[in-house]
Every structure is written in C-alpha cells, then in structure tokens.
Amino acid sequence: MTADRLPFRDPRLPFGKRVDDLLGRLTLDERVALLHQFAPAVDRLGVPAFRTGQEALHGVAWMGPATVFPQAVGLGATWNEDLVRRVGEAVSTEVRAMRARDERVGLNVWAPTVNLLRNPLWGRGEEGYSEDPTLTSAIATAYTRGLRGDHPVYWRTAPVLKHWLAHNNETDRDTSSASVRPRVLHEYDLRAFRTAVEAGAVAGVMPAYNLVNGRPNHVSPYLREHLRTWTDQELLVCSDAGAPSNLVDSEHYFDTHEEATAAALRAGVDSFTDHGTDGSKITARVRGALDRGLLDASDIDAAVRRQLHVRFALGEFDPDLDPYADTDAFDTAEHRALALEAAEQAVVLLTNDGLLPLDPTAGQRVAVVGPLADECKLDWYSGTLIHRSSPLDGIRDRFGADRVTHAEGADVVRLRCAAGLLRVPEAGGTAQTAARGAEGALDPALLAGRTDLPPLTADAEGTEFALTDWGGGVLTLRAPGGLYLSVADDRRVRASADQPGGWVVQETFRLEPHGDGHLLRHIGTGGHVSVAADGAKVAAEGEETPTVFTVETVRRGVDEVAAAAEAADVVIVVAGNDPHINGRETEDRTTLALPGAQDRLWRAARAANPRTVLVLSSSYPYAVPDAAAELPALLWTAHGGQAAGTALARVLAGDVSPAGRLPQTWYAADADLPDLFDYDVIGGRQTYLYFDGRPLFPFGHGLTYTTFAYADLTAERRGDTVHVAFTVTNTGPVASDEVAQVYVRAVDPTVPRPHRELVAHRRLHLAPGAGRRLEFEVPVLAMGFWDVAHGRWTVEPGTYAFLAGASSADLRLETGLRVDGPPPAPRPVLERGLAAADYDEQRGTVIADRAKDSGDCVIPDDGGAGELLYRRCDLGAGVRAATLEVSGTGTVALALADGTELGRVDAAVPGGPYAYADLETTVDARGVQDLRVTLTGTVRLAGLRFAPAAG
Q1: How far apart (Å, rounded) are the C-alpha atoms in residues 574 and 648?
Q2: Distance in angstroms (rounded) separating the CA atoms of residues 799 and 86
Q3: Cα–Cα distance between 283 and 293 in angstroms, integer?
Q4: Would you say domain 419-546 falls under CATH 3.40.50.80?
C-alpha cells in the first residue's frame, strides 16, 4: 500500500484512529526524533518536517513585516473580548498567509501569555493581560478562540498558553522557586489557565523556567493532576527554550540529562525546545534514558501522540480539506483598521480636569515633547513594522503640522577624552539617514551588528550626541543622523542601530564617575569604551586601559522642553519606557518611579505652561503621585503597535472617547509593593483583591469624556448561577464606551477573602441619553474559595454583596444575596491528618518539594525559624500522640494557639532531603483547637497524623 493510501491519510476516519495508525508505523528512532522542537521529516511515509513554536503575542513575531497590534497588556486594558478575538483572528490569518510564503513560519503559536501581573516590577509584565484571574482568563479565551478559528474540525493555528505556572520574576528566573500554597494555587494561578483550556481553543501549554514549591515547572505534577483533567482534548506541552538543559545545568535538580529528560517526559512535556535546530542532543538523552530503564516506549508514544493530534488538527494531512490552506490575507485594510481600533480602545484616561479633549479646529499651538514623542516602540515579541505612527505623527496629522512643534528633551552632549572629542565618521552618521523610506523604516542593510562601517574616532571637531537617560543610570547615545551607538561582535563602537534591541541590547551604556571624569561602560558586554588610533572599542578585561571622558553639555533637554512649552497653547509630554530597556524578558524593574530625567521634563513643561498633559506610553505602571495631583490630565497606554500615534491623537482630539481600564493596580510608591519573590497574594495582601492601602489608581480605573449612571441592580440565584442585572445610562454630552464591572464580596467570611473580586464585566457603547439593561450569569462557584481544611472548592453559607460600577473602587450599586447551607465543618484531622502545606497562616516558611515527582512539604525560610497555624482542627474526644513525617535536621514543636505546648520532636533524619521518617510525640488535646507548629533548622515537614486517645 502506498503512503498516500494508508489509513492515517483517510479523512473519513476520526483523528484518534489516524493518529494511532501513523504512530504504529513509526519506528522507535523516528518517534524519538519527533520529540525535539524541530521534528524531522519521515520521508518513507510522506510526513513532512514540523516545528513547534511561532511567537504571536500581539502579531506575528520574528518573521519579518507583519501587522503589529498593541502589547498584550494593552489588549488587556481594552476589557473587550470581542475585539481581542478579532485580533486573534487577524494574527492567525497572517500566520497562515506568511506560512504560504515561508515554511519557517509555524502554525503552532506560542501565545497568549496568561501569567498574572501580580507584581508590577516584573520585567515581562507587558506580555500578560491583568493581575486578575477572571479578566486574564476572559481575554486569553477570546484570543485563543481567534487564533484557533471557528471550523469544527480544523484549526487555523494551534495556540499554546505561556508560562505554566506562577511565573512573575525574571531575576534568577531559572533557579528561583515560587512558594504557592494551595489556596493561592487554586484561587489565583490555576484559574488564569483553566477557563481558556476548558473553552476548547487551547492546543497546549508551555512550562515556565522557574520552580514552584521547590520543583521545576518542567517536571510539575500539576500538568497531570490539574491541566490534563480539565479537558478530554490531547494537550501539547512544549518546553521553554533551553529549559530541559536547565534541569541539570543551572537548577541542579537532576544529576544527569538522561534523568532530567525522562522525568520531564513522564511529567508530561511532549516537545523539547533545546539546542536550537539541533535535535541530536535531545534524541541522545532520550535514547540514554531508554537504555537505563528510566523510560519505556509508552512514555514516548504518549508525547508523540499529542504532537500528532495537533498536526492533524492543523490540516497537515488533509490539505484539500483544510479551510485555511489558501489564506492569503496579509496587511489588509481590515487588519490596519483593527490595529487602530485596538490602539484606541487600549488608551486609559487616568485624570482629567476638563482640559481634554482638545479642539483641533481651535487653532491651538501644540508642543509634543518627551523621549517617546516621535517613537513607535516595538518589544521583543513584535513583528517588523509595515506602518508606523508616533504620537508626533498622529498629532501633526490631526491638529495640523504647522501648529505642532516637537522637542525630544534629550540632553545634547559631546564626549571629550585625551585624544579629542568622540566623533562619528561620515559613513556612520548623517549619511545613513537617506536609507530611510517613506514609512520611517531603516534599510535592512543598516542594522546593529554591522562591522563594515568605520568605528568612532576622536578629533578636535567631534560629534554632538543625543543622550537619553532611561533611568537607573542606563543611557543611549544617538548620532545626528538618528542612529544609535552600538557595539558589534568585533567590540567596535559604531553609529549603526536604528533602535535599541536584540536579545542582548548592544545600544545601552552607563557613565561611571572616575576621578574628574567618567568611564563609559557598555552594558551589553560589561566592558568599558576605549579610544585608540584605530577607533573606539569596548576593551575586554585585562586589555587596554579604559578611556576617561568628560561630558560636555551642549544643550539641556529640560531647557528645550521648557522653551517649546512656553511657546505653545498646550503641551503633550510623552514619557515611558523602551521595551528593550529597564524591564523586559531577563530583567525586572527595581522601582515604580518614572526615570528622573523624564520626571524633570514634565515638571519643566508644567512650570512653563500649566496646560500640560502627560501621556505615559509604557509596558507597565508607574508611581507618579505628583503628576496625578498637579497636571490637568494624565493618560496611559501600552505601546500601541503600528497605529499608536494615530489612536492617541484621535483620543486627544475627542474623535474617540477614551474607555480603556487599568488591568492592574497602580501603586503610589515602592513601599506599597511586596517582595518580588512573595507569591502569596493572600498573606502578602497583594493586588486589588487584598491590598489594604490606597492605590494611586485602582484596578479597573479609567475615565471617559462623558458620564454614566448605574441603576436598579438585582442579583437572583437561579440554580448554579446568579442572575445579575442593572441599567447603565450615558448621562453626558458625547457618545462613549463604558466598561461596566461586577464584583462580589463575602460579607462575613470565616477565612480571609478578597475585599472584592471581579466576576463579570462588559464593554458597551452608548449614545448620549441612551441606556441599556445589562444581564450576567455568574456561577455560584465564583463566590467560593479553596477550603484547605477539606481539600475542595467550597461556597460557604452567608451573605454575599454584589457590586456594580466603573472600577474596583468606583462601585455605584450594591445588593445582597444569601447562600444557605450547613456551617463549615472543622478540619477532620483524625480522618485526614494535616498536610503541612494546608496551613491557614504562616510566618517565616516556604513550601518545598516533598519528592522530586510530587508532593509538598514546608521548611523554615533560609534555615531560620518558621511557624504554621491550622485553624479549627477537630481532635474529637482527645488525641494521645502525633506522628510527624519529617526529613532533615531541626525541631518541630506543636502547641495550641494560646501557646500551650503539646509536644515536640528533634529530627536528625539521614539520607538527604527526600528521605523521610515518621517521628512520634505524645500529645494531649481534645475538641476543636487552633494548632500552631513551629519549625527550626533545616527540617522538612510533610504532614502530621494523630492517634486518638484510648476509649
């Protein structure tokens, strides 16, 4: 039988039978080879090569020109699932169109990122949607539905959710462990993934680099215990890049790569992204694991089966039936309009005293100033711009180029050294600007990394550089021709980069005081700039003596901004971040503060002209209390993609009433933040759910150019749902969107619960005077929590307040709903014992791995002393002893909450951290008690069991 007539080619058969047929025809070597990201072809069966992974976070990334939509956090700020679904459709359509021209473009897309934005200092916050699991899962579900397509059989693309699980720090990201107690796991982190998976439009997940409870995510038992129980669909788990090797090389979790690879496969990883396109190392490791008996063929078959299900769903084996095979829609008018619509809906109006909107027909002189005034910034997961619109472009188009002035506000400096002034040779400076096209893009030949351009020299004339301080002492230097100083592989310094960028940014520097001058350190290589007769270069350690520079300021940026502001009727200051600098993948932020240089710019503008608006174009929140208090208007938008400038101008002009809402809390100061590594949102009082302070701007906040009234809230239980309804009316002068939000709060809970929790929302458009009755079906389970006492989700009886309004802090209506039922029972510790991690409160402990494959234990943090509290433990008529499952060395002491000591054990268990012993202590207690457990030393407590008193 020829390959094209084999059963796996028969479209009349269900995918499962076709997968089994193809799997049975593959040799063991062929199956092993499919485990690598770049799976080779099986020519004898006519099976082509396949690769997992195509970045598509907010457009097709890394594969050249494509439509660039707002950053993911900006899509989250729209609070609009229909819009985000349409963005997903456009992105996946362009994936298909680009795939038709370039086979390197993959159909297994790695998007969206659903990690919750717990801490705003996380460097990758731009990739997520929200700090709230309900909003995040709603937006993620919409995006994956758009990516998947609506055909009942075939998928347009196969989306993979990133990054499983509890991943919210870049610092030590491959070696740090998130301590996630069961309540946080079930109520917070898992929920962001679960809804999207249950919706049926997710092809799989990607584990994160970090560890959770002491165990790397790439061997997480949660893949088996949770993820794969949510759906009958075969889910593909793709490793993150290099993470399989990290299990040995950086995490030292396993001694050999064969052990690590086997453990990852058994845990549920199906595709290994490691060593680039070279699959030989992974296949050798799998073969070694088979030879050592660490794996058997069934483990490999399970992974390959999941991969093949995705490939069949993508129509690979049915090209004549694949409804998406002939898709060629790329950079269409519809996609361009959608990029503009998304950018408009992402704009959040934070404050406004009536200055906005501006009348574009009033003849006002507008000064557009600041480091991002004429920028259209991309990030690491962007495609190449086909179209570009900076704030300056958009405002000139809308208000008239003759009425708009521009001042970047960068200091203009010269750098003097012993050999003279640092100078850019003609070929590396202004002569290169001619290569820019009509859309402002640089000729691809003029990119950072070129080595054929002459390096910088020093002479009597020198070059004036625009110095931009991005905060934290990180700066860029730009030549008059618009190109940034960059360092190539030969370590020479040239003016050759259109923008800062790259995995290791080569365009950032730091001035370090040295004697009467400064050394110029290149951050990418870590070396200092040295100027010699053959030009400027970054000296390697031990090579030439670094050059000492004197910084001569030709013009101060604040003076330029002040002059422009004074001559204008209104000032638009555009500040924020470059997504490749100070907060990005591999690098967390260290502060919420706006960079000092940018802070000085808006203050200078306001001092010269009180009619000053601050626009923050950034990947994350800032703490700007002075700006919020002193300026007449303040706006935020994530980097908005190709249409960012046009969208901003339309909002400023009132063509569009802004209606974006903050997807995360904006705190007033760094002191409001928990430690970056504190993942306990409940105990740490984090996010809008638990934060006890007063934020600068609350979750869900955003103003419009009109007003809305809320009325007639009702909440009625109907079986497993609560029917919530209320009326929203536009009571102001202009048409606008409103984002109506519904929250719930347990009035008198027995355990710590959120101050209020989002359960529903809707973005709607209303004309002046128009109203609409909104209705929502809220699951009763949305009022619940994870009951650690009984290991289950529960909705306890009591009164719940349903609240409706315009933000988590602007709640206009409230009504109560009573849930009846038996009161919560105490912990049945005699029947179930106590799992150490199921505490109610803790101090000075972290959760760790009980064993390498599954289970939790609790240990004192940093070898000190820690305390665990277990409330309402039912000891019945009395207990006579407690058996503690422990490893390591130290003391475990049991006491009542009032301090009455019950017993203790001194542990010195040999055999390493995973060798446990049962140690018994006499205990005399009865009734329902709060138990306190104190841990010292390096002891690891897995659990406790109690023996009832005789009789």
Answers
A1: 11
A2: 39
A3: 15
A4: no
- Rounded to an integer, what distance in angstroms lies between the CA atom of residue 946 and that of residue 878? 10
Is the alpha carbon torsion for 671, 673, 677, 679 positive or negative? positive
Alpha helix (H) residue ranges in 826-948: 829-832
pLDDT tens, residue by residue, 459-508? 999 999 999 999 999 999 999 999 999 999 999 999 999 999 999 999 99
Q: Please compute the mean of the pLDDT values over residues 550-556 and round it to a whole number.
A: 98
Q: Which amino acid is at 289?
A: A
Of the candidates 896, 776, 880, 773, which has an alpha carbon nearest to the alpha carbon of residue 830?
A: 880
Alpha helix segments (H runs only) across 10-132: 15-25, 28-33, 72-78, 81-101
Helix (H, G, I), strand (E, B) or coil at 217: helix
Q: pLDDT value at position 430? A: 44
pLDDT tier at 862, thresholds 50, 70, 90: confident
DSSP states of 240-281 as a string?
PTTHHHHHHHTS--SSSHHHHHHHHHHHT--BB--STT--HH
Catalytic one among 132, 189, 240, 469? 240
Average pLDDT over residues 234-260: 98
DSSP β-bridge partners for residue 92: none
Give the largest Cα separation in the chain, rounded: 100
DSSP annotation of 559 reads: H
The CATH number that domain 829-948 falls under is: 2.60.120.260
The CATH fold of domain 343-379+563-672? Rossmann fold (3.40.50)
The torsion angle over the Cα atoms of residues 376, 387, 660 and 470, rounded to 10 degrees, is: -10
Give dist(CA 501, CA 504) in Å, integer.
7
Residue 240 annotated in active site: yes
Amino acid at 820: D
Q: How many residues does the chain have?
A: 951
CA 898 to chain centre: 43
C-alpha span between 66 and 339 (Å, rounded) = 11
Task: Write the class of the CATH domain 706-819.
Answer: mainly beta
Residues 6 or more apart in contact with residue 835 via CB below 8 angstroms:
856, 942, 943
Residue type, 92: S
Q: Residue 798: left if φ>0, alpha if ψ -120 to 50, beta else—which one?
A: left
Identical fold, 419-546 and 829-948:
no
pLDDT digit string, tens, across residues 636-656: 999 999 999 999 999 999 999
The residue extents of the domains of the chain are 24-313, 343-379+563-672, 419-546, 706-819, 829-948
Mean pLDDT across the stretch 834-851? 98
**Superfamily for domain range 24-313:** Glycoside hydrolase, family 3, N-terminal domain (3.20.20.300)
